[in-house]
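Hello again,

I reread your note about wanting to compare the complex against the isolated chains. To keep things tidy I'm splitting this into two emails, and this first one only covers the full assembly. Below are the input lines as submitted, including protein chains and any nucleic acid or small-molecule components. They are followed by the predicted structure of everything together. The single-chain runs will come separately.
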Amino acid sequence: MTYRLGVDVGGTFTDLFLVNEKTGKAFTAKVPSTPADQSIGVLHGIERVCREANIQPFAIDHVMHGTTVATNTVLTGTGAKCGLVTTRGYRQVLQIARSFVPGGLGGWVIYNKSLPMAPLACTIEAHERIGSKGDIVQNLDEAQMRADLRGLKAHAIEALTVSLINSFANPVHERRVRDLAAEELPGIAVSISCEVVPEMQEYERTVTTVANSYVRPKVSRYVANLKSKIEHIAQDVKLHILRSDGGLAGAKAAEQYPVNLLMSGPAGGVTGALWVAAQAGFPNLLTVDVGGTSTDVALIQNGEPRLRRETTVGDVIVRASSVDIRTVGAGGGSIAHVPELTKALRVGPQSAGADPGPAAYARGGTEPTVTDANVVLGYLPAQQKLAGDMTLDRDMASKAVQKIASALYLSLEQAALGIYNIVNENMVGALRLVSVEQGYDPRDYALIAFGGAGPLHANALARLLGSWPAIIPPGPGVLCALGDATTAVRDERARTYVKRFSDSSAESLIRILDELAEAAAKSLEREGVPRSEIRKNYQVDLRYHGQGLRLTIPVDLKQLKKQGLKAIAAQFDAEHRRLFTFALDLEHELVTLRAAVQGRGIKVSRSKIAKGGGDAGGAVVGKQMAFMEGKRVAARVYDRARLKAGNRLAGPAIVMEMDSTTIILPKHHAKVDSLGNMLIYPDTPIAARRKPRAGKHVGKKS
Amino acid sequence: MPATIIQRKHKRIKRVKVDTVTIDIIESALRNARFEMDTVLFRTAMSPGIREQHDEFPMIANLEGKMVVGQFGSFIWGFMQGYEGTIEEGDIFLTNDPYSVNGAISHANDWLMLMPIYRNGRLIAWAAMFGHMTDVGGKVPGSLPTDARTIYEEGVTVPPVKIYKQGTLNEDVLKILLHNCRLPHWNLSDFNAITAALRTANTRCIEISERFGDDVFYSAMAEMLDRNKRAMRELISRTVPEKKQYFEDYLCDDGLDMGPYKIACTMWREGSKCIFDFTGTDPQSISSINFLLNEEMFKMFAGVYMIMVFDPQILFNDGFYDLMEVRIPPGTLLKPLKPAALSCRTHALGRIFDILGGLLGQGNPQFMCAAGFSDSPHFMYSGYDKHGDWFQLYQITFGGIPGKPFGDGPDGHSLWPSFTNVPNEFLESYFPLRIETYETIPDTGGAGKNRGGNGLRIGYRFLEPGEISIHDDRWLTYPWGVNGGLPGARSRKLLVRQDGTEEILRSKVDHVKVLAGDLLISDTWGGGGCGDPLERGVDKVMFDVEAGLVTVEGAKRYGVIVARGGSADAAATAELRTEMKKVRGNPKLFDRGFESIDELKERCLRETGLRPPLQPQFTKWATKAGAAGSS
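Full-complex prediction:
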């Protein structure tokens, strides 16, 4: 009997999700996180969940883990001291970056640029040159290179990056510099750009590879530590780390290319949401993960999350695939304020964070936050405890929100509702980025909310966007661990291949895509995935010759063989029309070829909850006065653990569970499905709309 | 006669009371819509100037044409007053004639498109956008001839026409335009891209209006304008003194070996109104460096600058325009009369920001920024490659951002919003050249408590014969420093021929023939320093020395002596700083790096390798017409 285990380490709790690979039977556990050494909490959790399942830890053969170590290293600026080798003449590639100054006209007045992750003092130049077609213009001066590498010793660098001009076209010099570095600087991990991201654009390739070096020592230590601890209790276990793109990396790949893990944590949430929604019968959805300082949103189309070819963490943007998750600085801790000159109401992006946290936490915070507004509105009942054991101080919350009320001459409750509405609007802004801005109509999608605070806002967000139902999965916190456990091992290989259609052919395309897939499949085999279980997918990035954009088009090799390149061209034109309302009669140009391979996922049979009737009266635990839609209403309070399949909860209502609270607004109701999900709908039938259709074009007004 | 607005529904939209939160929601929805316009354009345009460097400007205006979100001078009101014809649902207007729109766009490369937004047959808002086309015909590739004498040499221009009439494309007009451009498929693609962006704004405005109602949508926009006006009134009365402040700055030359040209402005406040008077500015040039400055555009520059310096939280829009008055004498460099050439207005446009900084700063020295990279120098390279295919590169380069009260100026960055450089690997893949050097030049940023950013050096190795053009400035005058900060370094262009001979190129040149193997070393200028360099922390100076951004020699400008081992010599540094302070006296408010223009010209050849420019000659007709027009 073998088991798979998903592990998600959050700020407060570590969630675990254990699945029997044969039967699909699942078990969960929640234990406190141990920030000083996260592996302690993980081991404690494993012990707990194994007891629950009545198995020994060595029955677990795969542990799958989403981690925020890489992200936090970047956000807190605590990465390695990095050396960098560039081509002569390009030493300042990170200093100049793209010359971009954010903030609109006059933005430079207040812009202070952050320092590059590889200091200029630790950047040296290789005397060499590769041409844009891969030709060697100037040979590498090895003696000079060795001397300069030795010079880096004085700077006590902890990691080294090599990123040379045009290395995507010919990596020979980068590889040679790596070999020289291994001799001159033994023990220093070297990342070379042609391996991390073999694509055109020197700044993006360099910053991505440097980011890889920057987080590498910390991630390696973390992964190695966790691996050895787990192996200690379960000898043959394989540890996999969730990648930003929703696939899994083996422990070794994770240690070598940690830049692919920058979105590991949030990707777990999206994968989990995807799984839950698919079980509930909704393959098209918008995911909303509301945390303390920010909200992450993503769009899932036909059961596949949209991917993006870049990852953003703080002000670092790297060229690494990630689930297209957009983040806004709007969460429970976001602070509301009224600027003196304009008298407008603003919420965020400043956040009270976890310390001191919202005023209601009574830990010294005095600024009005979104959580305080929720408390004033009565959305968080007195008996609700946050993070398991913290009681909320209503007086402190009221005092804080009163500042806004006074500044705007509003009643306390109106001010709180204003904060609630504005923060919802900020979240909608992010949801628009992943939907309408990409040509998708949010009304064709269900909305799934998780994270501690997501269910407080789900009903309101779904109403703003017309995305029904709003799905509230049971135990929103365990969702990430579930996502981890149900993910398949995945890898991909890409190559820049800038060629017009007239200079290329279907045959050469097929040949290269095959090579890429083969290389990726080999790496999966090394992770223990049998050849027979590997699925391959192909993509090309295309544009019209002369354009700067690139659209990713999935490729069917059989179709390509039969119809040639024009099959891809037609797909591209259709996508271009959908996104931008027009197509052009111009030659197409290939930019990047990519092959993704994936192992088999796992079936999980989630236990169904007990059946009940429409009446949810058995779960009512009280009444609460709440301010909704500008009126004071008496909301029923339910205990989620007592809900039964088939129950119908009429709004206004508040549903409590250990790690979250759900609001059901007046004139809305929730249905409980057989898996325990709550599906919130408006009472009035949803405006007569065409049959929901995937990716409806919304750019043109009918 | 003003334009006739055709509406099916005649009920007037009225101003109603809107609660704060609804206004804020509409405000953020409009702001999102504006950024969405950018996104659509960047992704589909083909001119690298738009696509990679983001030389484009969107806006959404209320039904009276006042800009509510965006950043350029709204001339929609003026357009509605001047357009003889109808405005109907589905119309989109196109123009690239600066003289037809009083300078809302300032050269023919900018194609401006306008779209009235209708809901249920009634006008509810406007969207507008312009972008810089790589080529619009005329006498040189890129359509920016430095030696043009009239606008007729600068390409094909079109007055405001309905390029879409009630939703139908006017193909004939478009064909004529494209027929006159060197890269018609780029123009067509960019045209489509701007159209798509306008339609995006259209959709979003209709959605907002559907959600809240036309009256609320209109009233919320009105309230956003009022909010801005209230905030700006406060800001103006706090920061603009009633006493007249005067400032002048220069364009070094006109591309015809004459210069420098003076831009002069006086600013003062009368009650809550701020007045800018450009009397004293030189007459219009006979070459193409004239900048037809739209008064509303200038108000926007001034307003944005004040907001950024004093209170960046204020949302910027047209609301405060009544609080400013701008007087620009006709027939001058900033209000040239037709048919003056306009294409190379980028230098004067940039210099306006230095003028603003100098004016506003005198009343509030603690907020003053130095002079910076007030330009967007152009580099162009065109010809036929070995396959016989035409290539044409237009590139904007960057330089040193000025030192500012809030910190150092970044090295080799853009002063213009959302501009980015073109990746060199991209250039090398698409054009027959190799970028051998791409770095900022140590010590070119002006020394100061907050250092000016370094200028940028690009080494272009040409791989095919062709012609290059360069449009730059500040090769003679310096980007000045403030409050004790020193000026930044000048620009310089050196052409190294394959045979080793070297030639210093003038700052503005066209038709320079290059051969395969020739190397152009293009140095842009640094930003001025802000504050006393002798007060800059020694650790900060040493950080820059270790980074190679300041040399050991350059550190002495900060009074810092670097010892042999590479660390600062504390005793020698303290001594030098005391000595320098004594010699220098009190820090200067402005340090221009010269005493007088004559003195500057006297040392020109020695320092720059170029002859000093001659005294500008002005056309009689323009000065005469200007005098007649203003009296």
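For quick reference: Chain A is about 30% helix and 25% strand.

B.
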